[in-house]
Amino acid sequence: MKIFLVVLLLLLSCVMSDDQVSSIKGIEVYSRKKTIETFQISSLRVIETCPSTKDSLEYMIKEGYNDFFSELYYKKSSVETCNLLFLALECPTSRDTASIISFYKNFLYQCKISPVLF
């Protein structure tokens, strides 16, 4: 019976809105899609201020964020905090695309965005 309830909750979480999950968990959440979009939009802003990051952040926009964010929901406060820190980063001094991608992935890892688990 317990396994059935866990599976049911997982299936329901796939179709619930951010607001519904927020109500159930008692905290504000962002869906995976909203989290990815948040960083994609911020990346466009960073490209404007740091043109040398264009190729790296275009990769992150197209593939990197989808690979990095694997949970269905994240705590809104942790996404917003990490996003503000992301926007405040200084331009990387490296010109190597792979190094810059690693820099941003490491930043996200160190940021420890909190997933919302069921």
Would you write up a description of this structure?
With 118 residues, this protein is mainly alpha-helical. Helix content is 70%, strand content 5%. It contains six helices and two strands, in the order ααβααβαα. It has helices spanning 2-15, 18-25, 32-49, 54-68, 76-88, 97-111, and strands at residues 29-31, 73-75. Helix 3 runs antiparallel to helix 4 and helix 3 (32-49) packs parallel to helix 5 (76-88). The longest helix is centred in the middle third of the chain and has 18 residues, at 32-49. The protein starts with a helix and ends in a 7-residue tail after the last helix. The model has no long low-confidence stretch (mean pLDDT 86).
Features:
single chain, 118 residues, mainly alpha, two-stranded antiparallel sheet, 6 helices, elongated
